[in-house]
Amino acid sequence: MGLDTPLRADEANSALNIDSLKLMSLAMDVSTLFQIPDSGLEDYLLRGQTIGDWVDVVMESRNSGAQALAFTSSGSTGEPVTYRHEWIDLLDEVRDLAPEFAAHLGQSIARVVVCVPTHHIYGFLFGIVLPAVLDLPVLDRPQAMLTAHSGRFSDGDLIVGFPWFWRALAQAGTQFSESCIGLSSTGPLDADITPRLKAKGLKAMIEIHGSSETAGIGYRSHSSDPYTLMNRWRVGPDKARLARNRDLSDTVLLPDRFDWVDPRRYQLRGRLDQAIQVAGYNVYPDRIAMQIARHPDIDQAYVRLMRPGEGDRLKAYVVPSDEDLPPAEVKKRLVKWCRASLTTAQMPAVITVGSALPMNSLGKPADW
Fold first, then answer.
1. Strands 265-271, 314-320: parallel, antiparallel or unpaired by DSSP?
2. Among residues 49, 225, 230, 340, which is most buried (max CB within 10 A)?
3. pLDDT of 113-129, one tens digit each?
4. CA angle 131, 132, 137 (to 5 degrees)
5. Are 353 and 331 in contact (CB under 8 A)?
6. What's the confidence (pLDDT) of residue 2?
């Protein structure tokens, strides 16, 4: 099976009207995504003149041995990392989960409403591969977001979202039709969100656990339940790794802290890399604090996620290097710097200026 989505004639004939540097960069991105070097055809991308020419190269490469795909982590801090996935593994994941989705719907999936970007692996799997496997219509962004905003869901909809999106729908009191279910991933869903959505008609919420490196690992339909390991995985010999069923010697380190309930189920106990989620993006508060502390006007900085009653963004506490600099001026300079240096998800929504970092009685960092 391939990604055989035909282009319209006007799309296929669209010229690649970009300069040589952008052409090279884009060709490398396409070559990496489709792992075209496995077929030896990557040079043909640079000879292409139209979008259709590039599609031909991709399709020819799929017929000539390039059977993997590669996805890059968001790189919200640090360098993005690219991970290769075998096509058969991605197919196995959606084929295994499709009956689970239909069982929760109580009918066949009628439409996939994709409210996440599809160039990341989660959006790709359930926004592109799943509809292709089941031959389903797709409502992709921004149409999907407009549908969500107006609550115009239909029976049989599988809505692909992420924690920030679901929280926004819960807060808006969005009403759902009688038979549609949600899918969430990229981070844990707060325990109160699913009950609030179900009270408005959502039939079920399936949470997918995984990462750019592994794709999906497990899933669950109740926030208090353990995750069920997907069929293509099994526990590795030392329980610190996962092994692929198709090749038990092919193992990966667990990306998070697992408590194994039994060989097929596990509870999550937090990330190993200290990342947290802001609007669906992984961010690292300690690393952001270190970046802010390198600003010439800042001596020390803390960054942390807001408490539930404060919001769902980051907040920062900073100690200026010049104690005579007015707090308002410190904030003004820091906000300007943050806008130029950090991503939207990394930016503190609130900045507090003080003479010393907040500490508790044990001398450990305290909230403020």
1. unpaired
2. 230
3. 999 988 889 999 999 99
4. 45
5. yes
6. 45
